Amino acid sequence: MTETVTLTGEAREVALAEAQTVLGMTRDDAMRGKVGALVAAVDEGAVDDETAELLENVLELGLQAGRIRAYYGPGGEQAALATLRKLPRGRVRSDSTREVSAALQALAGKQLDSVKLAAVAPGAFTLSFEADGYDLSVRLDAHGARLTSVGT
Q: What is the three-class DSSP state of 149?
């Protein structure tokens, strides 16, 4: 099933400008074709499954580099983030965050015994909690937040 994400207003403007920037920098003909299709889709105001992954990559790169905030300000950055949340990887991140939040509710009202943060790889961390006999570990990385262990 093909899913379409509609882009309007500032979200469309930022996505279009970023895609056009990438198109202007792309020298590989095959990639130029893909980015050109992305530019056309964003210009029309809708991306489908075929162009969504590339748009995610373009927006993530612009956000991580600070380019989107620098060029389009906080409003443009928020528009790009809102667009990312609508795209497939963003929906997965949002779902995983809700699942982790629900699991962490088991600690509500418990005596917190320890909290530890460990760097496990570049850009990846594990946050561990011990509370009243409960042990929870959460991995935080570019893919989102995931429970890695739950124990009592």
A: strand
Q: How far apart are CA 19 and CA 48, in angstroms?
A: 15
| 110-151 residue pLDDT tens | 999 999 999 999 999 999 999 988 888 999 988 889 988 777
Contacts of 10 (CB under 8 A, 6+ apart): 72, 75, 76, 79
CA distance 47 to 54: 10
pTM for the structure as a whole: 0.77
Q: In sequence order, what are the residues at sequence separation of 6 or more whose Cβ sits closer than 8 angstroms to the Cβ of residue 15?
A: 7, 42, 55, 58, 59, 80, 83
Torsion sign across C-alpha atoms 44, 83, 95, 35 = positive
* Per-residue exposure over 30-39, b if at least 16 CB sit within 10 Å of its own CB, e if not: eeeebbeebb
Domain ranges of the chain: 5-86, 103-151
